[in-house]
């Protein structure tokens, strides 16, 4: 049982008096006061004052006395229960004297996590500075509870509604701006001044609307916020700073990983009509992939894109691939490093995303031939650049021998963000249905799956740390292979009876041969319905 006591006191005050019994005054002439505390004569009233506890905890390090007290309890029983809980926590090793705030702890926690990769650290830093500290930083760690974290997410949801309204306003402003421009453009010369005034006002309104936040904080991002806080609080529990990880049981909108969808003819037609992508993650068909590669043959990044489309390195893995890790004798590329970047456009070398990310990728014959040719081209580019440097060193700097496979004319590796932007511009110019550069990995996985590779082999190709992740993402084949998969179970079942049975020399139109016991017996024909598969339910 705890060693302490409970008592009752209030906040009532009375003037401070000097030795002569006169009020002591402040500098501004007002009398100084003191709290009556437990000496207040009104404490015998049931609703006056509140209950406090006072604890005698075992001395801390260095013999430091620990005598916590706290008030505001409505009854003596409530104060005793709180005191007992604090005593139990202290007995279990919890630092009940800690005054550390959530802000101070989060900063200290991130500083000690030297095991984080730079990209992870920067993501956590952004979340802590922009989201967690503004909402929770003022609280003491020992005061933090689940309700505080839930309230933070309620504020995120409320702000999402504001951003949605801002998005609608921006769309309306854009439509007004386009309409005002058309009206000004189509007005006969000399154009009346009010057309130009309307257009200028619409442009100003659009500029103002675009300054307001419009991007929704979706379930995936909210889950990252929660996971960041949960990781920090997990260490706080280990430190005996708090008793429970309050972030674990927070309720958030359901998050579902975006499903990778193939750009079928129907989806392409819908996209051309509305400009909408069916999913954030889209995959080209083999024909669309071929159209892209054929058109990109003369692009400076063609060979890199070809490698990504068939052997599935990530963007950073492709841009960071060094020649020293490409075995041109065996045709194997070892993925052991990558180029990473952040919102500030900085680039640095790092290890792959996971342990499984370090992998050996066997090159297909086409990619191997392209890399062989590219190596000669790169050497010629180097000789040409070095000659330009000798001729005009003020204009051309020295050649940057980065050792990377894919480089610019001066030897520097491509910036990962530039590769993505060039890819997006190129496919937009071609008029192909849009995919992200990262979706070339999905194209490579889908093509490999359609070609008959096992899911385990595709996991190794992609460098996924989990088989389940690969299986959950790539469970559908390309459209042209789906019909064969659908027919396969039917072909396995022997049939003695058919929809229509006839003894004929020649099969009826639309019929397929059924089961047959001998050459002397008549054929059994299965006459398939003429209704297309998509209309079968209507026909029925």
Automatic annotation (TrEMBL):
What the entry lists under InterPro entries is as follows: AP2-like_int_N (IPR028259), DNA_brk_join_enz (IPR011010), Integrase-like_cat_sf (IPR013762), Integrase_catalytic (IPR002104), Integrase_recombinase_N (IPR010998), Integrase_SAM-like_N (IPR004107), Tyrosine_recombinase_XerCD (IPR050090)
Q: Which PROSITE patterns match?
A: TYR_RECOMBINASE
Q: Which Pfam families match?
A: Arm-DNA-bind_4, Phage_int_SAM_3, Phage_integrase
- Please indicate if the UniProt record lists DNA-binding as a keyword: yes
Sorted alphabetically, which SUPFAM superfamilies does this protein's record hold?
A: DNA breaking-rejoining enzymes
* Region: Disordered, residue numbers: 383-418, 499-540
> Which UniProt keyword terms apply here?
DNA integration, DNA recombination, DNA-binding
Q: Could you tell me where the Basic and acidic residues compositional bias lies?
A: 383-394
Domain Tyr recombinase stretches: 279-487
Family affiliation: Belongs to the 'phage' integrase family.
Instruction: Name it.
Output: Tyrosine-type recombinase/integrase
Source organism per entry reads: Streptomyces coacervatus
């Amino acid at each position: 049982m705890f060693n302490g006591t409970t008592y009752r006191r209030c906040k009532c005050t009375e003037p401070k008096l000097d030795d002569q019994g006169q009020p002591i005054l402040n500098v501004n002439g007002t009398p100084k006061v003191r709290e009556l505390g437990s000496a207040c004569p009104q404490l015998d009233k049931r609703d006056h004052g509140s209950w406090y506890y006072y604890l005698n905890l075992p001395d801390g390090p260095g013999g430091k006395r620990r005598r916590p007290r706290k008030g505001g309890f409505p009854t003596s029983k409530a104060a005793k229960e709180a005191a007992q809980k604090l005593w139990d926590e202290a007995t279990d090793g919890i630092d009940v004297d800690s005054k550390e705030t959530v802000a101070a702890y989060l900063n200290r926690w991130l500083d000690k996590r030297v095991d984080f990769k730079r990209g992870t650290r920067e993501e956590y830093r952004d979340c802590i500075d922009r989201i967690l500290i503004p909402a929770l930083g003022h609280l003491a760690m020992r005061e933090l509870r689940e309700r505080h974290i839930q309230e933070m997410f309620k504020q995120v949801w409320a702000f999402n509604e504001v951003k949605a309204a801002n998005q609608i306003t921006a769309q309306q402003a854009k439509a007004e701006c386009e309409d005002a421009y058309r009206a000004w453009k189509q007005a006969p010369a000399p154009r009346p001044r009010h057309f130009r005034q309307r257009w200028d006002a619409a442009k100003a309104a659009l500029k103002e609307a675009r300054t307001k936040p419009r991007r929704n904080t979706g379930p995936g991002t909210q889950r990252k916020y929660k996971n960041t806080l949960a990781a920090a609080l997990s260490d706080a529990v280990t430190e005996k700073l708090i008793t429970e990880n309050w972030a674990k049981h927070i309720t958030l909108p359901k998050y579902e990983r975006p499903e990778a969808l193939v750009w079928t003819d129907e989806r392409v037609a819908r996209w051309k009509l509305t400009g909408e992508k069916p999913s954030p993650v889209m995959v080209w068909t083999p024909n669309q992939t071929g159209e892209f590669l054929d058109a990109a043959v003369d692009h400076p990044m063609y060979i890199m894109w070809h490698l990504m489309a068939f052997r599935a390195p990530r963007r950073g893995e492709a841009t960071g691939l060094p020649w020293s890790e490409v075995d041109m004798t065996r045709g194997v590329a070892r993925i052991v490093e990558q180029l990473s970047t952040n919102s500030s456009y900085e680039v640095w070398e790092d290890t792959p995303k996971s342990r499984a990310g370090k992998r050996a990728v066997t090159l297909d014959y086409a990619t191997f031939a392209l890399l062989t040719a590219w190596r000669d081209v790169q050497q010629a580019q180097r000789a040409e650049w070095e000659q330009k440097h000798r001729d005009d060193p003020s204009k051309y700097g020295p050649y940057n021998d980065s050792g990377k496979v894919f480089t610019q004319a001066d030897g520097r590796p491509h910036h990962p963000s530039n590769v993505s932007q060039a890819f997006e511009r190129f496919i937009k110019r071609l008029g192909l249905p849009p995919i992200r550069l990262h979706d070339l990995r999905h194209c490579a996985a889908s093509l490999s799956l359609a070609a008959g590779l096992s899911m385990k082999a595709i996991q190794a190709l992609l460098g996924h740390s989990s088989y389940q992740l690969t299986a959950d993402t790539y469970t559908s084949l390309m459209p042209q292979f789906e019909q064969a998969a659908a027919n396969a179970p039917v072909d396995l079942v022997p049939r003695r009876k058919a929809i229509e049975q006839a003894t004929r020399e020649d099969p009826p139109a639309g019929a397929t041969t059924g089961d047959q016991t001998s050459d002397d017996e008549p054929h059994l024909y299965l006459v398939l319905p003429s209704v297309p598969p998509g209309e079968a339910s209507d026909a029925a």
